[in-house]
Design goal:
The chain has 212 residues and is of the alpha+beta class. The protein has a 7-stranded mixed beta sheet with strand order 1-2-3-4-5-7-6, sandwiched between helices. Helix 7 links the parallel strand 4 and strand 5. The N and C termini lie far apart (40 Å).
Length: 212
């Protein structure tokens, strides 16, 4: 049955019309994420949820404008999963564009914006080169989890990475055992342990196409 479900699925680039649903999928998946909780939660759940929606919306819009890889996992015509990769062709961390900073500042506040930039800077410091991407988001709709979609979405990311001849690979920060197991069994290896803000985790890396 699982195989039949997966045979109807495909990975394609998102269109502008997909971004609203993609943002909703990401919001649900990252609602309790320790990194976002640490960066955005200041004791008010309603305020936190508003900040999280704003952060996801602005980041998706920026990725779209900068023509970064927004991969959708579709079951027929229905978007059920999203993976978003950003490369260092776009200034990241403390070098983020001012228009991004301003929009993020308006949506999340100064301290939260600073925390999000520091997260990226921490990851960038430990990647093997400046020709590496970061997997910013990877998410499945809540009712589609546990069906094997996660591994296929990760494999779609790896396929994309292998096609980018100028890219050395993709890094991802994980902070729980389930994430670690998913990425480890799908080609990612550990670079280092990393603490971002108050959150401890592992920085994993997938090395792209083999040289030669």
């Amino acid at each position: 049955m699982e195989q039949q479900i997966l045979e109807s699925c495909r990975a394609v680039y998102l269109t502008a019309e997909d971004l609203r649903i993609a943002a909703s999928i990401i919001y649900n998946a990252y609602h309790d994420d320790p990194l976002f909780m640490d960066a955005l939660f200041k004791g008010d759940k309603v305020a936190y949820e508003q900040k999280l929606r704003a952060a996801i919306r602005e980041e998706l819009n920026e990725l779209w404008k900068q023509e970064q890889a927004l991969i959708g996992w579709f079951d027929g015509e229905r978007l059920i999963g999203v993976a978003c990769i950003i490369t260092q062709q776009v200034p990241l961390g403390d070098a983020r564009y001012w228009h991004w900073r301003l929009k993020m500042l308006m949506g999340t506040g100064w301290q939260s914006t600073q925390a999000l930039m520091k997260k990226e800077s921490s990851i960038l410091e430990h990647l093997p080169s400046k020709d590496c991407g970061i997997l910013q988001f990877i998410a499945l709709a809540p009712n589609e989890q546990g069906k094997g979609h996660g591994s296929h979405l990760v494999q779609a990311v790896l396929s994309w990475c292998d096609e980018q001849l100028a890219l050395d690979g993709v890094g991802v920060f994980v902070n729980n055992a389930k994430q670690l197991a998913l990425f480890s069994k799908n080609g990612f290896t550990r670079l280092t342990s990393l603490t971002i803000g108050k959150v401890e985790g592992e920085l994993l890396f997938y090395r792209g196409h083999e040289d030669g």
